[in-house]
What does this fold into?
Amino acid sequence: MRQIEAHRVTELVEQLCIEACCVIARDIEDSFINYRETERSPLGQQVLGTLIENASIAREGRDPLCQDTGMTVVFVTMGQEVHVTGGFIEEAINKGVRQGYVKGFLRKSVVEDPFNRVNTGDNTPAVIHYEMVPGDTFRVTVAPKGFGSENKSALRMLTPSEGVEGVKRFVIDTVATAGASACPPVIVGVGIGGTMERAAYLAKKALLRPVGTKNEDEELVSLEAELLEKINRLGIGPAGLGGSTTALAVHVITQATHIAGLPVAVNIGCHATRHASGAL
Amino acid sequence: MQEKNQPPAPIKLTTPLTDRIIRSLKAGDMVSLSGIVYTARDAAHGRLVEMANRGEAMPFAFPGQAVFYAGPAPAKPGRPIGSVGPTTGSRMDAYSPRLMEMGLKIMIGKGSRSEEVIEAIKKHGGVYFAAIGGIAALMARSVESAKVIAFEELGTEAIRALRVTSLPLIVAIDHQGNNIYETGPQQYHC
It folds into this structure.
């Protein structure tokens, strides 16, 4: 049994909150550069150039890429041979979020109750997903999620007869409806299968895959390519002002589901789709 | 097919804007805005409308002035403001027509607006500017000073007077109701 002290988890989460909010992923920045070459709208090219400039200013000054530093989503991958000591893991993570958002001058955007809407003042509680794996790894990904794009995400329980065509229609309609508010060019995470909440989790997880990498599932490679092409024909474009770059990538994850169902969740990630990972 | 022509240089404007200037702006124009803009988002809009309905004076005079739908990140020591950028304008749709009745004409935000707001913009001769979402580190460089002028207890949602230099904007909805969020995507839909 490998022991990890809770304060180390806190320190890691604190550091990842700041890094995720200020340093854009290399693969996403590269895709801005690539799409600027193919973007048809002059204004769209200019917007993509502005995104590149913003990424550089944020990285150099350790300033948040976006003022909406999101609700903090934390993915923990934990080996079953690991034992966190000296505190409860959930409290250690939230303490890291609290410290990261204060020390990093990140905006506190979380309210304690959906109806009374009083700000908690430190961006906690985080939304935490745990995944147990064999062995003794301990890996954390912090993915702060802004609500411009989160608000445009959607889930539908399709019937099996609607099939893959029904899935395509739903994904494309969701991106079309999202428009400028989701901060295009977006990354589209699609979770298909499982139960309702599982599909939503898979859609969020799909956003973490690096842009430009190939789906491990060969059958999904062509589905992703078709969806990306159709989404980029919508014309929404960078910042929603018109253009040929509405999405940078479409990432699909599927899993087993019920004989009677076809759950589909679409989680839209903005053009920053922030995330940072580390291990202990 | 890539179009090589570059967009024209932005129109330089300084607040307060006269009605004549507002009426000269066309959807799609690039604008570089200087002067004072006032931040207000969901919570502040709710309060402004309540105050208006009670017949109270607004915290700042509306004519010629701009409301920026933004809630900044905290300022680092020695800086006027943290990262700042637009939030979704449509969440303010429920409030904007009432504030336009009170004399507000200039709004800055992200994303399209409701038919009701577009009608109000036409009726009152207003303008809605688009700011690019998610370039908040860059936009903060345009802010010279920031001062809370109302609702301090709302934190990031307080109304702040920002003195800005060359804030990069695009005319999204002009006084005739032309809307780049409609026409732009139509042009590239294929």
Notes: The first helix of chain A runs from residue 6 to 22. Chain A has two domains: 2-21+65-145, 148-277. The beta strands of chain A are 2-5, 71-79, 82-85, 127-133, 138-145, 154-158, 186-194, 247-257, 262-269, 276-279.
